[in-house]
């Protein structure tokens, strides 16, 4: 087995405010699973990163058991009183229109209007996000308090929309590495003005891609998908089934901008490598939660469908449906914070650092503890490290001893970090120090018999 070398950790020097700026730029766009809004969003992503491509699939195309829907676009949508005073207008909030609303123009009675109004009675100040992708209907979403003020006998409805044969469009970027093995990141980008679900993950992904593309060397390949939820991932899988054999780990990213603790939802197979990886990564995160797989939620349920059964989990902060702002107008620019965005980015940067350094150290001096003092490693001088890492990520003397003791070819660098209860980066730096002192060799796989026997 060939010896390997460490790759430097992914830099975490990105401001949460810079991530938040992407969300601000994209927030006003009226997105859906098809149409001009999602195309405009993908164009924004393309302008931020290199080698981004989009694919358009025609309405009516069969994708497994599904059919690509018609394309939906809205030019305007207004509800007006009998004097043509505007009461509801999508220019005030993109949430005001029922997603996939049919066009409608005319005078309707208050009684007939009722079945086309969608509110949240238990959250009377908030506008809900509602869809009608596969059931033809027209309608408006508004706050319960707005609805209570609709006391006239008749109202004018003017919804200028089209629902016609067109295209479903998704975007992706493949960042190649030395290996064809891929780490998949999947992000849904079909919601209108919702900041946490899911502009937060989209914005973080942009910065993560930038970091990966700037690396001089990568072991793994990384594929990022930007898709409309459910139908988008099903369409990608239907058209790219041959590529799934290269996916060795994956994450669906969602709701990463609020201040809740991290939540990881496992891939379908409990033994999937991504589950062990995320479990160890989150063990150092305060109040982090790990949930078992269930076939409900985001696109992990498509990647984990039995025909594919891919090792793809889902990373969130507050999970979908568990916070009061979810799918409402309260999921706004103030709900997502720069601090939360920055911390989420840092966690994913650490994840990539771990996957790029999935190596097994073997001690070159395994019989007894090697003398560190004659190598200038006792006491350990931090001044020699030349790093701007936070204190928690600096190696210490005991960290070096942990690495030396567990470098038996059976423990990965991540295993050592987990066993020693130290950050991965601190153990990575310790490994680097010891390798430079010729006290370690690194291998890409476990070593059955790392030491010579007499």
From TrEMBL:
Residues in UCP01524 winged helix-turn-helix domain copies: 362-441
Domain of life: Bacteria
Residue ranges of every copy of the DUF4910 domain listed in the record: 20-357
Residue ranges the record marks as coiled coil: none
Keyword Zinc (UniProt): yes
Residues covered by the DUF2172 domain: 71-162
Pfam families (UniProt xref): DUF2172, DUF4910, HTH_47
UniProt-listed Gene3D superfamilies: 3.50.30.90, Winged helix-like DNA-binding domain superfamily/Winged helix DNA-binding domain, Zn peptidases
Cofactor(s) named in the record: Zn(2+)
InterPro entries tied to this protein: DUF2172, DUF4910, UCP015244, UCP01524_HTH, WH-like_DNA-bd_sf
GO function term, MF aspect, one: metal ion binding
Cofactor binding, note field: Binds 1 zinc ion per subunit.
Residues involved in Zn(2+) binding: 191, 197, 327
Record-linked SUPFAM superfamilies: Zn-dependent exopeptidases (SSF53187)
Keywords from the named record: Metal-binding, Zinc
Name assigned to this protein: Peptidase M28
Source taxonomy: Bacteria, Pseudomonadati, Pseudomonadota, Alphaproteobacteria, Acetobacterales
């Amino acid at each position: 087995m060939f010896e390997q070398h460490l790759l430097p950790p992914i830099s975490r020097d990105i401001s949460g405010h810079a991530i938040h700026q992407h969300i601000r730029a994209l927030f006003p766009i009226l997105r859906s699973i098809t149409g001009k809004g999602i195309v405009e969003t993908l164009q924004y992503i393309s302008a931020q990163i290199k080698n981004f491509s989009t694919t358009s699939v025609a309405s009516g195309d069969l994708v497994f058991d599904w059919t690509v829907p018609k394309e939906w676009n809205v030019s305007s949508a207004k509800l007006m009183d009998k004097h043509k005073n505007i009461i509801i207008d999508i220019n005030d909030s993109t949430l005001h229109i029922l997603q996939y609303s049919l066009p409608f123009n005319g005078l309707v009675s208050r009684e007939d209007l009722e079945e086309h109004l969608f509110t949240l009675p238990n959250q009377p100040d908030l506008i809900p996000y509602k869809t009608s992708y596969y059931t033809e209907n027209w309608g408006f979403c508004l706050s319960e308090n707005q609805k209570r003020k609709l006391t006239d006998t008749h109202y004018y409805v003017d919804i200028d929309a089209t629902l016609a044969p067109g295209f479903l469009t998704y975007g992706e970027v493949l960042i190649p590495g030395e290996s064809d093995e891929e780490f998949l990141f999947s992000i849904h980008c079909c919601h209108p003005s919702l900041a946490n679900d899911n502009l937060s993950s989209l914005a973080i992904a942009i910065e993560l891609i930038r970091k990966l593309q700037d690396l001089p060397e990568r072991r793994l390949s990384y594929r990022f998908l930007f898709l409309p939820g459910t139908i988008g991932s099903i369409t990608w899988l239907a058209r790219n089934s041959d590529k799934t054999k290269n996916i060795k780990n994956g994450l669906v990213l969602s709701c990463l901008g609020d201040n809740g603790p991290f939540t990881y939802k496992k891939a379908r197979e409990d033994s999937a490598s991504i589950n062990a990886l995320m479990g160890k990564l989150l063990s150092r995160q305060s109040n982090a939660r790990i949930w078992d797989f269930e076939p409900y939620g985001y696109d992990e349920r498509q990647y984990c469908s039995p025909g594919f059964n891919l090792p793809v989990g889902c990373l969130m902060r507050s999970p979908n449906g568990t916070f009061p702002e979810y799918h409402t107008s309260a999921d706004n620019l103030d709900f997502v914070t720069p601090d939360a965005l920055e911390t989420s980015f840092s966690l994913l940067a650490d994840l990539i650092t771990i996957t790029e350094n999935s190596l097994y150290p073997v001690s070159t001096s395994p019989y007894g503890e090697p003398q560190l003092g004659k190598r200038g490693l006792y006491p350990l001088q931090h001044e020699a490290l030349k790093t701007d890492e936070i204190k928690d990520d600096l190696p210490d003397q005991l960290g070096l001893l942990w690495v030396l003791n567990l470098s038996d070819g059976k423990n990965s660098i991540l295993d050592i970090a987990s066993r020693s209860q130290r950050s991965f980066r601190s153990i990575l730096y310790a490994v680097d120090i010891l390798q430079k002192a010729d006290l370690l060799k690194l291998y890409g796989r476990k070593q059955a018999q790392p030491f010579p026997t007499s």
